[in-house]
Design goal:
This protein has seven helices and four strands, in the order H-H-E-H-H-E-H-E-H-E-H. The chain is an alpha/beta fold.
Amino acid sequence: YLLSGIKKIFKNSKIFFGTFPSEVRPDYVDEDVLKIIKKFVYNRKIIIGAQSGSERILKIYKRAHSVSDILNAVYLCKKLNFEAQVDFIFGFPEENEEDLNDTLKIIKEIVKLGGRIHAHYYIPLPGTESENKRAKEIPEWFKKEILKLEGKGKIFGKWKTQMLYQIL
């Protein structure tokens, strides 16, 4: 009702849903919801807030979704002709090699499904439990893998610039 009401009020306007500055939780992406919003929205990109491909990191940061939720959301977007743009953060303070391997594996699966990755470097937010934590440096092997995908247009974002903010 909400989207149909908005469409009636703003007849000649383009309605955007699930795009910047908001993102959709992966566990809230549902086939029925996508079918409904597809009728009313102009956008064909949905931004999904994954943050990490590591179950361990997702639990530490209380994300309340799983890696399988992320992949399911991307799959459903593709099925209903939406492009999934998936947010990932690199450099979590607790991140280790296994977490990065898990994240890279999921990123590559998302890319195979036709999704794009919006990459960020960890920046602690004031007022959160993590506000005093420092980002962890990203290992060279991981940077090289991300840069390869970035060169193919599969990853975009200001992650390299964000890394510089942590060094200053």
